[in-house]
Design brief:
- The structure is a single chain.
- By secondary structure, this protein is an alpha+beta fold.
- Among the domains are: 121 residues, Beta-Lactamase, CATH 3.30.450; 142 residues, Reverse transcriptase/Diguanylate cyclase domain (Alpha-Beta Plaits).
- The chain has 16 helices and 18 strands.
- The strands form 4 sheets. It has a 6-stranded antiparallel β-sheet with strand order 7-8-6-11-10-9, sandwiched between helices. A 5-stranded antiparallel β-sheet has the order 2-1-5-4-3, with helices on both faces. A 5-stranded mixed β-sheet has the order 13-14-12-17-18, with helices on both faces.
- Strand 10 and strand 11 form a beta hairpin.
- Helix 1 packs antiparallel against helix 10 and helix 2 packs antiparallel against helix 3.
- The N terminus is likely disordered.
Length: 509
């Protein structure tokens, strides 16, 4: 128990320093993590908000077209369609024109609602009337437009993104049924830009829609110059012209190099299949921060039609990033300062500890070190208690400065002539203690005689010295061992000095 208490006291200061260091680190780590959490929550909320509002916008558009379909489906439209199937080509053209006259005014209104395409199909999936482009008709959509085919076959509303003869769109295809007879279908189609306009406006986004080139090339029969463009920055896709693709950099206040830096990251995410919040990337440029995020756009058959990319110059996110970075810099500075202070304290403690264990004049270990360390490490050996003969005469005759130099020189000589694992201590005044580890008494006595002779033959600061040595066997009771060596030394001092004496009981044991 005493040993445990001793060890506890010895390492208590080190333990306290470690605890303080850990507490400092935890405190600043919590501050940094808090700022990081604010940043992550903002990103998560932004992504969730965009996705949620996109779904709401799509749902609202569906409600609109359902209401339009109910309002406009009248007996006149059904009657004209019923006549088409028994009509010759000339009469079909007449019926087509009549339907156009009925639906053209409606489409003029619908365009204000964001509807881009409005058309009527026959029950065999022939495009009978494109109200938005009445000069093109009669083409078979069976292999092109799955939404139309499925709406006619299932006789229920079919909806979803799909590429078409002219452009893509989010399509709502309603079957036209009267008296349980399928007469055809009517279609309302929004551009993706129109579908997401509430999202883009609410979040002040700059967006592009990259469409699969193969899908466009395999379905459209007109030049893409009207509805699609190419851009070297999006080389593998067409860009949908319903989105404003000009001057993308200026819209987010970036130069071309800055835009490419962030855009390349987005394209890389697309190529590696990373989307949504995991694909959210941002870059801070001087006084602005721009983020970008891609989304997959799948068609009605769940194939990837293209990719929607949102960009935003975001002051709020920039403030959060600045706060996070400032907190990190501040925390790192405080941790550095704390480490410097802890290091200085540890160094001061170490110096104090060394001073407490060492004699300031000779730099030998002292009594404190003996009782706190040597008694733990050395269990077997021999103790030599050494005293300089007539040292007072040196101090009196030559002064204490000379006496100090003699003590220092003697200490070095003693240390130079014992093993590295032996200990030489200044016990006090002109007394020294030598602990010969794992050394039998007889061998220790011989070492003492050797040391006495060396000292006698050595000049110390131009002064000759002799020493008296008391020898004792090291016991578990260290105090007794010290007293025995001291008694043997006293005997030498009383009987002529400059000699070595073993404590008698040590020889018996």
């Amino acid at each position: 128990m005493r040993k445990f208490i001793h060890l506890f006291k010895r390492y208590l200061f080190s333990f306290v320093l470690v605890i303080v260091g850990i507490m400092v680190f935890i405190q600043f780590a919590e501050l940094v993590l808090t700022k990081e959490a604010y940043l992550e929550n903002y990103i998560l909320d932004t992504v969730a908000g965009i996705e949620g509002l996109s779904n709401v916008s799509i749902e609202n558009k569906e409600n609109v077209v359902k209401a339009l379909f109910v309002m406009e489906m009248n007996c006149e439209t059904s009657s004209l369609l019923r006549q088409v199937y028994d009509a010759n080509d000339a009469y079909k053209d007449q019926l087509r024109n009549q339907l156009f006259q009925i639906h053209k005014p409606k489409f003029d209104v619908y365009k204000e609602l964001g509807i881009r395409q409005y058309q009527i199909h026959l029950r065999d999936a022939e495009s009978f009337l494109r109200v938005h482009n009445p000069s093109v008709y009669g083409d078979d959509l069976t292999e092109i437009r799955r939404t139309v085919v499925d709406a006619l076959e299932s006789r229920v509303l079919v909806k979803g993104m799909e590429e078409g003869r002219f452009s893509n769109g989010y399509r709502y295809v309603f079957p036209i049924i009267e008296d349980n007879e399928l007469l055809g279908s009517i279609e309302y189609s929004y551009s993706l830009k129109s579908m997401l306009k509430p999202v883009i406006d609410t979040y002040d986004l700059t967006s592009v829609f990259m469409v699969n080139k193969d899908e466009v090339d395999s379905k459209t029969f007109m030049s893409i110059s009207r509805d699609y463009t190419t851009d070297i920055r999006f080389n593998d896709w067409y860009l949908d012209n319903s989105f404003s693709n000009e001057n993308l950099e200026e819209k987010v206040l970036l130069n071309k190099g800055e835009f490419l830096l962030i855009n390349n990251q987005v394209i890389e995410n697309i190529q590696t299949g990373v989307f949504g919040v995991d694909a959210f990337v941002y870059e801070k440029f001087d006084d602005k921060l721009v983020w970008a995020m891609p989304f997959e756009v799948r068609d009605y058959t769940d194939r990837v039609l293209g990719y929607l990319i949102h960009y935003k110059n975001d002051d709020v996110l920039m403030d959060l990033v600045d706060q996070r970075d400032k907190q990190i810099r501040g925390s790192l500075s405080m941790i550095l300062v704390s480490l410097i202070l802890l290091s200085a304290i540890w160094k001061l403690y170490s110096v104090t500890r060394i001073n407490a264990h060492h004699d300031s004049l000779t730099n030998l270990y002292n009594r404190h070190y003996f009782y706190n360390y040597i008694t733990e490490k050395v269990k077997i050996g021999t103790i030599l208690m050494i005293d300089i003969d007539d040292f007072k005469l040196i101090n009196d005759k030559y002064g204490h400065d000379c006496g100090d130099k003699v003590l220092t020189a003697l200490a070095k000589t003693l240390k130079d002539h014992v093993r590295s694992n032996d200990n030489v201590l200044r016990w006090g005044g002109e007394e020294f203690l030598v602990v010969l580890k794992d050394t039998p008494l007889k061998e220790g006595y011989n070492k003492a005689c050797h040391l006495r002779k060396i000292i006698e033959e050595t000049s110390f600061n131009d002064k000759k010295l002799t020493i008296s040595i008391g020898v004792s066997k090291l016991r578990d009771d260290f105090e007794s061992s010290i007293k025995e060596a001291d008694q043997a030394l006293y005997f030498v001092k009383e009987h002529g000095k400059n000699s070595v004496k073993i404590f008698e009981r040590s020889m018996d044991s």
